[in-house]
Specification:
The complex is a heterodimer of chains A (330) and B (261).
Chain A: H1 3-24, E1 36-42, H2 51-58, H3 61-64, E2 67-74, H4 78-83, E3 88-91, H5 93-101, E4 106-111, E5 118-123, E6 138-141, H6 145-157, E7 166-169, H7 175-182, E8 185-189, H8 190-200, E9 204-208, H9 209-212, E10 222-226, H10 227-232, H11 234-253, H12 255-265, H13 271-281, H14 297-309, H15 319-322
Parallel strand pairs in A: 1-2, 1-3, 6-7, 6-8
Antiparallel strand pairs in A: 3-10, 4-10, 5-8, 5-9
Helix pairs in contact in A: 2-11, 2-12, 8-13, 11-12, 12-13
Chain B: H1 2-32, H2 43-52, H3 54-88, H4 90-105, H5 112-119, H6 123-147, H7 151-159, H8 164-201, E1 202-203, H9 207-216, H10 220-248, H11 250-260
Helix pairs in contact in B: 2-10, 3-4, 3-6, 3-8, 3-9, 6-8, 7-8, 8-9, 8-10, 9-10
Classes of the chains: A alpha/beta (330), B mainly alpha (261).
Chain lengths: 330, 261
């Protein structure tokens, strides 16, 4: 092997690397100097829960407040918001409570949807009409201790034995497939999965959590911010929520426009489902509250006590610190 | 060269035939058993989704491939530097080699909060995951390759008072190339999947994001179309690596041809 040949080979490798470099080119980043960049983390893929924020982006409500908002879906929301990697995030009461128990300094700053729209769904032909009928049935869930406690609470109310429920973990599998093939009932958000079932013409029995047990009418989803941001830049939070509230107002008054904003940012979604889900949700964002986003102490206290009573948290949290209405304009 | 091309072409037919048979059976079973598309999409439906969503898929592919190529490049540089240093200083190898193995046993999803806090939600955390995935097969192969370099040749050059860099350039690197490429073949195969997993941790663009969004709106056909893109791109990267190996190691070609003749 001559030196010349070897040098040739090394030249080939360098050329290969150069080609790769070339492939990378053409990815430039541009930034708007005048607008303040804000990161909001989403706890799931884009859906109608978030459409108020997509509407606020598309209608320029955030820009009016001097903000440029970017929405990212993320597998972890609470920690990055607490650390300040992101300014805001979408979470839910249970998650915020668990975070506070672990001394992670996040605060719920607005309820995106006023009442809990989740519940237990099953095919109508299985005849599950109340929690008493859960006995001897198979439950397909994501394997959280909350699910077991919730079933226990509901079934005890109906004098049924929750130990007679067969729990299976189904993870990322489509809920509607789960209740058809693997299990008898599962936990869904009606505004998305329930609507999908309606569109498919599946007949469901749906047991809404909040109607069975008042303590289970917790806030889901909520917007959260870190304590650090709250003490250092309250004005930013006010501006963010003002524009966000405007976006959700639009989603209530003109659901089709908000749905289009969502679809524009996530064209992968099924248009028919987004439109139908938006129509169903439009009255649920604010519901009976005087303005969008308000939270009540009682609801936080009830669910905290409930979690404590079922040994899901080992201490009660200070309810006054876990949420705030300070940034919502009435 | 001709012989080589013909033999590859011959080799591809059995697997093409098997794939065709498999797809046909899949399509027929889907139709015959009337399986709903949200459960198992038929190959034709996947094809339709692929065509309909092609521009969108390509824009997501762009984001994914950016992370893949930057990650791969960093992994290549890093493993070259590390393995050469480990080969030169035994104590460094003793210190680092176990850590290398440990790095591969960590379930990445458990690191999600940490990766997101440290590297944000943009491209950086995806690049890090790709580096983590690709770095290991390369390093292990390079370390092994460097150990098997002909010591007599190195000694000869040393007697001729060659500098370490000359030895590296003329003896060590060329003889380690086959090891480098067999490591790279494994790395590129896993690199796209690594990027997709990283996108599941958090992000706003990429094939992983596309797959999640499709699944969450019950469009399995679209998710499968994205899988097809991932597979195609991974295969292309693999073939590209084989081609690079073929070009940069002419002496291996000669060896192979001699064997075949």
């Amino acid at each position: 092997m001559t030196t010349n040949k070897v040098n040739n080979n090394i030249r080939y490798i360098i050329m290969l690397i150069a080609v790769c470099m070339f492939l990378l080119a053409g990815c430039s980043t541009e930034g708007d100097q005048e607008l303040e960049k804000i990161t909001v983390l989403l706890d799931w893929t884009p859906n109608t829960n978030y459409s108020g924020m997509y509407a606020a982006i598309e209608e320029g409500y955030y820009a009016e407040e001097g903000l440029e908002v970017e929405l990212f879906q993320a597998a972890a929301v609470v920690q990055p918001v607490a650390e300040g990697t992101a300014q805001f995030g979408v979470s839910y009461q249970e998650q915020v409570t668990f975070a506070r128990v672990e001394n992670i300094p996040v605060v719920s700053i607005a309820a995106i949807i006023q009442n809990n729209t989740s519940g237990f769904a099953s095919l109508r032909e299985r005849g599950i009409q109340s929690p008493a009928d859960f006995e001897g049935k198979k439950y397909g869930g994501w394997g959280s201790p909350i699910e077991e406690a919730t079933l226990q609470a509901l079934m005890e109310k109906y004098n049924a034995n929750y130990e007679k429920v067969d729990f299976i973990v189904t993870g990322e599998v489509d809920s509607l497939i789960v209740i058809e093939l693997e299990a008898d009932f599962t936990w869904i958000y009606y505004g998305w999965t329930g609507i999908e079932a309606e569109l498919k013409g599946m007949e469901l029995n749906f047991i809404e959590l909040k109607t069975v047990d008042n303590a289970l009418n917790y806030y889901t989803p909520v917007l959260i911010a870190g304590e650090k941001l709250i003490s250092e830049n309250p004005d930013l939070i006010k501006r963010f929520l003002r524009a966000t509230a405007k976006g959700y107002k639009l989603a209530m008054d003109d659901p089709a426009v908000a749905a289009e904003a969502l679809l524009k940012n996530a064209p992968e979604l099924d248009r028919e489902l987004v439109m139908a889900s938006q129509e169903w949700l439009k009255d649920k964002y604010q519901a009976d509250a005087p303005v969008w986003g308000l939270q009540e102490t009682e609801r936080w206290t009830n669910y905290t006590n409930w979690l404590f009573n079922y040994n899901l948290i080992d201490r009660k949290i200070d309810v006054d610190k876990v949420f705030t209405n300070d940034f919502i304009e009435r | 060269m001709k012989a080589k091309l013909v033999s590859t072409a011959k080799n591809i037919y059995p697997s093409l035939l098997l794939i065709t048979f498999f797809l046909a059976a899949w399509e027929i079973i889907c139709r015959w058993a009337n399986i709903p598309a949200s459960r198992v999409p038929s190959p034709l439906l996947i094809g339709k989704c692929l065509v309909a969503d092609f521009p969108l898929l390509m824009s997501h592919l762009h984001a994914t491939m950016y992370a893949v190529s930057v990650g791969l490049l960093i992994a290549i540089f890093l493993s070259l530097i590390l393995s050469i240093s480990m080969n030169r200083w035994l104590w460094l190898k003793q210190a680092l080699y176990p850590l290398l193995i440990i790095s591969q046993t960590i379930p990445i999803i458990a690191l999600a909060p940490l990766l997101l806090i440290l590297f944000g939600f943009g491209i950086t955390n995806k690049i890090i995951v790709v580096v983590l995935v690709c770095f290991f097969p390369l390093s292990v192969n390079l370390v092994e390759g460097l150990e098997q370099v002909d010591n007599e040749m190195i000694n000869l050059l040393r007697i001729m008072q060659a500098k370490p860099i000359t030895i590296l350039q003329n003896v060590q690197l060329p003889s380690v190339l086959p090891f480098f490429y067999s490591g790279l073949k494994i790395s590129v195969t896993y690199s796209v999947m690594g990027a997709v997993i990283a996108e599941w941790l958090g992000g706003r663009a990429g094939l992983g994001i596309y797959i999640l969004r499709s699944l969450h709106t019950y469009r399995a056909g679209n998710a499968f179309a994205a899988i097809l893109v991932v597979v195609t791109v991974s295969l292309m990267l693999f073939k590209l690596t084989e081609f690079a190996a073929w070009i940069s190691m002419p002496w291996e070609r000669i060896k192979k041809n001699n064997l075949e003749d």
